[in-house]
Amino acid sequence: MPRPLLAAATAGLTALLLGSVTVAIAQQTPPLPLSALNEELASYAFESPTTAHQAPALKELPRTILHDQRFLWLRPLRMRRSDLPWAGAIFATTAGLLAIDRPVGQELSDSPPGAGFAFSHRVGQLGGAFTDFGIAGAFYLVGRWRGDERARTTGLLGWRAVADSLIVVEILKVATQRPRPTRDDGRSRNHNADGEFFTGGRSFPSGHAAGAWALATVVAHQYRHRRWVPPTTYSLAALVAVSRVTERKHFPADVFVGSVLGYLIARHVVHSASPASPELQSRWILLPSAGPRGEVGLTLLLQF
Description:
The protein is mainly alpha-helical.
């Protein structure tokens, strides 16, 4: 069975099952006074271990990342009308950058490496995945040592956001096969600066940019009460991203798409971990319902 039909059939069967459970409980439950009904509602609310009101646990991180990946890859299929403006802006900017990728790449590859290349190379070395995971780990360890829940949570969310971003980026690199503009010494080889896709390479999108922006977004959100933190973290992430172009490791479109992915994925991570977010809340609840003859019963619902 095709996947769309299978999804529709599954959704229909799930709705039918929940509807059957609701009707059965409503018919079998005797009428209750409102005071007794409130007591019943309080006693039959069971929150799952993954509720967002609990602090994230290190042992739950792999399962949470798998859950994130499922959400992230299916999210484009659930586009809403409110998503169209920013999605259109991202696509338009990417298209514009793709149009200038070739002249920018050729201009950089034709000029000899200088001081700017050396500085960008150093920034690239300091701004990689190991650094991102190391900074997040430092937040976590300091939080555990000092009993600082904010720092501990920042470390866990940072690990999660960076891992989610890099997984998405690595899959896209394999799928797009875009060569880097130059070799390791900053010089062009085999017309790599043309920026063609599907010719063997790992340039699109930028993993450095994605990881830097993912971590910066988490830290900026967790410490947004300190006014200097968001501009500082975002500036450092932008420095890492731009350095990948001046180091001649990526085209402008690679860096932009990587940065956007890291930012949006981290926004999803911090939002899903918020107590106000419905994404991590899952519980069985009982709600009042009215029968065909006006009797009051209870309806069992699975709330996500």
